[in-house]
Amino acid sequence: MNIPSAEVTKTYRRSIPNTWWLKKSSYVLFMLRELSSVFVALYALCLLSLVYAVSQGPESYAAWVAGSQSGWMILLHVVMGLFVLYHTVTWFRISGRIFGREGSGALSPAAVTALNYVIWIVISLGVMYIILS
Amino acid sequence: MSLIKRINALEPLWWSLFGLGGTMAAFLFPVHIFIQGVAIPLGWVSSELLHYERLVVFLHSPIVKIYLFLLIVPPLFHAAHRIRLTLEDLRIEWLDRVLPLLCYGGAILLTIMTLIVLL
Q1: How many domains is chain B built from?
Q2: CATH of the domain at B96
Q3: Rounded CA gap, A5 and A133, in Å?
Q4: Which of A27, A30, A38, A40 to mutate to test the interface with B (most CBs of B within 10 A)?
C-alpha cells in the first residue's frame, strides 16, 4: 500500500469521470443547454462577419452572400437556429423561476414565462417588419 | 494576486454580461437566424433586402450600430461564461488554469474587433 503524502490528503477531491453527464437524461439536457452557448457565439461571429464583409466593399460582400447561399451554410443556420431556440425555451423557463412569485398580487413563474413568450413574439414580429419593409 | 484570481474577482461583471447576452440571444437570435440564414438564402423573401447599397445605408445609422453592438458583444460574453463553467464541470484539470483567460480574453478580443468594424 502506498501512503499518500500530506499534500495529497490536505484536500480530498473525489474523482468524477468527465462523462458523468451521460448518466441521466436530465444531465444530458443540461449539457445540451450549455452547448447552446457555443452556437450563440457562432451566430454572433456570423453577424460580425456580415458587418465586416459590408465594411470591406461590394466584392467581399458579394462573396459573403454567395457563401450564405451554400447548402452547408443554410444547414449550419438551421442547426444554430434549433440550439438557439432551445436556449430561448430554457432561458424563459429560468426567467419564470427567478422573477415569478406564488401568491395573490404576484406573477407566478408560469405567468412570467408566458409573458416572456409574448414579448418575444412581439419583438420578433417587430424585427421582421423593420428588416422586411 | 494571480491573474486568474483577478479574473475571478470580477465574477459579478461576468455574470451580468452572461445575463444580458443570454437575454439578447433568447429574444433576438431566432428571428435573425431565420431571416438572414434561412429565409433570404432560400429565396422565401426578396433577396433585394440584402442589397449592398441598402445595407451600407443601414449600417451608417448610429442606432443600427448600437443595436448590432448589443446583438454581437453581450452574447459572446454569455457564451464565454457558460463555456467556462461547463468545462470546469467536466473536470479537466489542466484546462482550469487557462480557461478563464481563454474565455473572457477571447470575448474581449472579439469586442475590440466588433468596435473596429462598426466604428
Answers
A1: 1
A2: 1.20.1300.10
A3: 71
A4: A40
* Axis crossing angle, helix B11-32 with helix A25-55, rounded to the nearest 10: 80
B22: left (phi over 0), alpha (psi -120 to 50) or beta: alpha
Q: Please name the residue that has the C-alpha cell 459579478.
A: B12
Give yes or no for a contact between B54 and B40, defined as CB atoms under 8 angstroms apart: no
Protein fold of A20-132: 3 helical TM bundles of succinate and fumarate reductases (1.20.1300)
Tell me the three cell numbers of residue A51.
458587418
- Residue numbers of the domain that contains B92: 3-118
Alpha carbon distance B112, B73 (integer Å): 9
The closest CB to that of A81, out of B33, B41, B71, belongs to B33
Contact assessment for residue B38 and residue A77, using Cβ atoms and an 8 Å cutoff: yes
CA A58 to chain centroid: 32
| A7-65 pLDDT, tens digit each | 555 677 777 787 888 888 999 999 999 999 999 999 999 999 999 999 999 999 999 99
Give the one of B21, B22, B31 whose C-beta lies nearest to A124's C-beta: B31
Contact partners, residue A103, CB within 8 Å, separation at least 6: none
Q: Where are the domains of chain A?
A: 20-132
| CA-derived radius of gyration, chain A | 23
Complex ipTM, two decimals? 0.94
Dihedral sign for Cα A124, B23, B83, A22, please.
negative
| Binary contact (B21, A40; C-beta < 8 A) | yes
